[in-house]
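Lecture 7 notes: from sequence to structure.
We start with the chain below.
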Amino acid sequence: MKLVDAHAHLNVSEFDVDRGQVIKDCLDKGVFVINVGVNYQSSKIAVEIAQQYETGVWVAIGLHPGNIGRTKKEDAKLDAICDDGFDKNLFAELAKSDKVVAVGEIGLDYFSKPKTAKKFEEMKERQITELKKQIAFAREINLPIIFHCRMAHNDLIEILKKEAKDNGAIRGVVHCFTGGVAELEEYLALGLHIGLTGIIYKMDSDEVIKKIPQNRILLETDCPWLSPPGLPQRNEPQNVQIIAQYVAQIRNGPLELLIASANRNAQELFGLAF
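Predicted structure tokens for the same chain:
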């Protein structure tokens, strides 16, 4: 049975040595992948990777909130490179590829706080500014959005509610969901999908997982991070099958039904053909 890993980072350096083999193993097992950028360079590389495959590998392009600013080290890893703001023209060129199916991952991340309250407020303001630019960009090119949110649900929900009121419904997914039932209900009311990753092994999230409607679930690995327990530290897309099994167990429902629903959700949200 085919299965979509709706959020992977096969473009990062952890896969430089054997990326081709990892992707081949996935496709041979029927695991398809949306490869996600966090800055311009990683988004560009994700497009270049996807163009090598007729089907089964797609791309999301965007500027992650943690990658806004100036890169501190010249030899920084690809996923640590910062862009000094969202460059619409550069990303618009990438979006011309038919492999690009979403804008993401974009959003808010308040985990790493600056030393002073003033700097923290400046960071939040900058993230919100760049997020709004990218939401407008996604609407312009008519693509769904992959939202990143860490320790910032209240602000993100407030922004999305205003956006929906002013400009209409937003298509997208809250990736690697870490909120509670209250946040879940807010996102569902906005029409968003919910992405489940290996983070669920580290959280008491059973109640949330049970409350997600079947037609809103997406399954993700967020590889190379968040590997399920007992597996090598480097996560891989094929491990999405293990996450599917765990989610089905929590929901006390058939695995085949969960996978079929998650695949259909990914196809409908991202316009995937397989």
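Points to note: Residues 3-270 form a domain with the TIM Barrel fold (CATH 3.20.20.140). DSSP finds nine helices and eight strands in the chain.
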